[in-house]
Amino acid sequence: MKKNSNPLLASATGLALALSSQLPxxxxxxxxxxxxxxxxxxxxxxxxxxxxxxxxxxxxxITSGDTAVTVNGVSFTPQNTGIPLVGVGGATxxxxxxxxxxxxxxxxxxxxxxxxYHLIRGGTxxxxxxxxxxxxxxxxxxxxxxxxxxRSSRHNDFITGYDGTSSAPAGxxxxxxxxxxxxxxxxxxxxGDSIIGTFLAxxxxxxITIYGSGNNGASWASGNSQSQxxxxxxxxxxxxxxxxxxxxxxxxxxVLLLRRRK
Length: 262
Fold this sequence. Notes:
Layout: H1 7-21, E1 29-30, E2 34-35, E3 51-57, E4 69-71, E5 74-78, E6 85-86, E7 92-101, H2 114-120, E8 123-133, E9 140-147, E10 159-162, E11 171-174, E12 193-200, E13 206-213, E14 231-236, H3 245-261
Parallel strand pairs: 3-5
Antiparallel strand pairs: 1-12, 2-12, 3-14, 4-5, 6-7, 7-8, 8-13, 9-12, 9-14, 10-11, 10-13
Helix pairs in contact: 1-3
């Protein structure tokens, strides 16, 4: 039987796959953060766009009922720092570094609202980074993080930063919207922000660097007390591409180039 093999195509396929694994991480486009409390106890701050891939929270006090919690239709699974949480298709979220505190941050103006309370009252601080793995190259993703510290000693000078540099993070999210002079900020008092970023995956792994500031952004450091995440979710916001589509476009150019050089 005659084999329909094409050595040029095979070589180009191998080359394309090898190059894709060595590409730098994509740039995440971070949106301005939003106060989770909008004058009432609602769950709509949790994004539901596209398809949920994996959703993580750090409240793991089982005796208080803090197993998986569903907020605005999104199911968040508790996990601790350093342990990958596996979601759809083997995609994972891993919190790197940090200290788990599963019952310290309260829920501020949400006033013990069941599901929200169980989502944000625990968290991890002193985080160095977050790793998203098992991504589909060519897929557009949305990542949403929830940053909150409802304790009376916290105010709007306490901020978590995302990516960028230690002098200018690309995204920032307040841990509390309570002003330092004691007057509540518009839209809420002792409740933090959520922040959304979107990116087109060009690698199976995406690393998000985390920073913190306790002086309203005058200085930043990775892995300090304000480098905190209470919960985080990953969503696919466009249809997952056919495995051959994006690859074949690149292969066509590679094969033409190889033929011309022959």
